[in-house]
Amino acid sequence: MKELMKQWEGTPYPQMIRGLPEVDVPVEGIRGWLINGKATQAVFFDIQVTAKVPPHSHCAQWGMVIEGEMKLTIGGKENLYKKGDWYYIPKDVVHAAVFLTHVHVLDVFDDPQRYRTK
User: Which of 9, 36, 47, 58 has the fewest CB atoms lying closer than 10 Å?
Assistant: First the structure.
């Protein structure tokens, strides 16, 4: 299994995920691959430790940490999230993130137009 992971370029995502359409993310150090549904989007994010997501708000968002650690501030309350932790951000609630390690998360948005592809 470890040998197989080496060919995935440091990401837990296999080619079937990295072959999905890549989203256009306006933050340096963040890449993501999109699954689009009629009412939602799911994005597999690969986030470098240098990335910082500034305070912003949008549609509701649910996410789970696949690998790594990050500090996520939701509505003014900061928490540490690690592998296996999940979070929910209600619609229009201001949130921001700082990444303590290389992070992989799966985020689901309740807006099928949240992200556009490259």
Answer: 9
